[in-house]
Amino acid sequence: MHIVQGDIREATSIFEAASFDVVTSNPPYLNQSNGRVSEASHKAIARHELFCTFEDVVKAAAKLLVLAGVFIWYTDRFA
After folding, report:
1. Which long-range contacts (CB under 8 A, 24 or more apart) does 66-72 make?
2. Shortest CA distance to 27 belongs to which of 52, 6, 9?
3. Cys-Cys crosslink for 49: which of 4, 26, 28, 58, Cβ 3.0 to 4.6 Å?
4. Partner residues linked to 70 by β-bridges
């Protein structure tokens, strides 16, 4: 396993298309209009769509996953 930290919006320029069996993400759980945004920047970035959106994550995952790949993203925001 090799962990790469970076901007999900740049993932397709770092990795080849269809090169992963599984893609998982520390999601932004809430969009900016839902919930209280933490004053602690590291918490705000992890919890809210401040630097990327759900759409950004899905687009990158779709390009990086092999045909039968698995995308793991936990949220209850669609419940």
Report:
1. 66/18, 66/19, 66/20, 66/21, 67/18, 69/18, 69/20, 69/21, 69/22, 69/23, 70/21, 70/22, 70/23, 71/22, 71/23, 71/24, 72/22, 72/23, 72/24, 72/25
2. 52
3. 28
4. 22
The structure's pTM equals 0.78
Going by C-beta distance under 8 Å and a sequence separation of 6 or more, which residues neighbour residue 23? 60, 61, 64, 65, 69, 70, 71, 72
Q: Which of 61, 58, 54, 56 is nearest to 20 (CA)?
A: 61
51: three-class secondary structure by DSSP: coil
